[in-house]
Known about the structure:
Blueprint (H helix, E strand, L loop, with lengths): L1 H17 L11 H29 L1 E5 L14 E5 L13 E5 L7 E8 L4 E5 L2 E4 L2 E2 L17 E4 L4 E5 L11 H4 L2 E2 L3 E10 L5 E2 L10
Antiparallel strand pairs: 1-2, 2-11, 3-4, 3-11, 4-9, 5-6, 5-8, 6-7, 9-10, 11-12
Catalytic activity: Cleavage of hydrophobic, N-terminal signal or leader sequences from secreted and periplasmic proteins
GO molecular function, one term: serine-type endopeptidase activity
Organism: Anaerococcus octavius
Amino acid sequence: MNSENKNEKVVIETETNKGPTITKKQKPPKNEKEEDGVLEWIKSIVIALVIAGVIKWLFFDATKVSGNSMLNTLHNGDMLFMNKIGKHFHDYERGDIVILKAPDAYNKLYVKRVVGVPGDTITLKDEKVYLNGEELDEPYTSVDYTLQTSDTYEWYLLDNQYFVMGDNRAEGASNDSRNYGPVEKDEIVGHAFFRFYPFSDMGNIDNNPYGESN
Length: 214
């Protein structure tokens, strides 16, 4: 009797073991899915900010014009895009509008125009600017704004030196190379190439007013 019961038990266990095993896949909790989605979103935002930061640091940046030293070309409050990487591949040219670190003020930027490049001799005489002995034609300045000096000053620009001036030549309107001398290339952050505000004046900035290739 005991032997029969034992055999029956064995048969039942064996038949049960032979039966198919079905594993049901469990769905992750809803809260876990939402957390994964939030993390992916945060990750995407961080990556985008890092890329934007690298582009801003290496290639391009935006700056705001403060003051009237570049009238009538630029006005107070104008917003500009500047190219920061170009200087690593070529030199600045006469006529370029550049953003430079203020030589006479900490943590401040100036917007000026390149008037002289390495190898040039700049002379201020009889209220006019002379480039290598010839009077410089400056179509970007207004007839109302003249160079306010009757004295004679002269600078010879060495390698990597630039002479910069504001387009507004009214007395005291621009603090530029007439006051602090030539600026080194390393002090120039980049050159302005596009005005994006105000929208009514949006467009490329003329960096070659002389109509020549330098």
